[in-house]
UniProtKB/TrEMBL annotation:
Low complexity bias locations: 9-24
GO-annotated cellular components: mitochondrial inner membrane; mitochondrial intermembrane space
Protein name: NADH dehydrogenase [ubiquinone] 1 beta subcomplex subunit 7
Bilayer disposition of the protein: Peripheral membrane protein
Similarity section: Belongs to the complex I NDUFB7 subunit family.
Function: Accessory subunit of the mitochondrial membrane respiratory chain NADH dehydrogenase (Complex I), that is believed not to be involved in catalysis. Complex I functions in the transfer of electrons from NADH to the respiratory chain. The immediate electron acceptor for the enzyme is believed to be ubiquinone.
PANTHER family named in the record: NADH DEHYDROGENASE [UBIQUINONE] 1 BETA SUBCOMPLEX SUBUNIT 7, NADH:UBIQUINONE OXIDOREDUCTASE B18-LIKE SUBUNIT
Keywords assigned by UniProt, alphabetized: Disulfide bond, Electron transport, Membrane, Mitochondrion, Mitochondrion inner membrane, Respiratory chain, Transport, Ubiquinone
Localization of this protein: Mitochondrion inner membrane; Mitochondrion intermembrane space
InterPro entries, per the entry: NDUB7
Lineage: Eukaryota, Fungi, Dikarya, Ascomycota, Pezizomycotina
Disordered: annotated segments: 1-26
Pfam families in alphabetical order: NDUF_B7 (PF05676)
Length: 93
């Protein structure tokens, strides 16, 4: 487990859909997309390539990936609110 993965699991941002770093590099995912939803992005990109990027072909994969991204966003917002409440409402910047 890398340092980033251990920090994510300690904070509560780890997910069962996460792909290993080897799988992500094999799929040639850009660094900004290597998050806990990468396990859903890899099959989505594979489907897109096989179906010539027709938007109606990979709807299920796209929907599951976008839902994962939204859930991760909600977790980050909740964590930020929790940290802000611990600081008494003070902003970090």
């Amino acid at each position: 487990m890398t340092v980033a993965e251990s920090v994510k699991s300690a904070v509560g941002l780890s997910s069962s859909t996460a792909a290993s770093s080897q799988e992500m590099s094999d799929a040639r995912l850009p660094l900004q997309y290597r998050d806990s939803c990468a396990g859903l992005l890899i099959p989505l990109n594979r489907c897109r390539q096989q179906e010539y990027y027709l938007p109606w072909k990979c709807e299920d994969e796209r929907h599951s990936y976008e839902k994962c991204q939204y859930e991760e966003f909600k977790k980050r917002v909740a964590k930020m609110e929790e940290l802000r409440a611990a600081k008494g409402g003070a902003r970090s910047n």
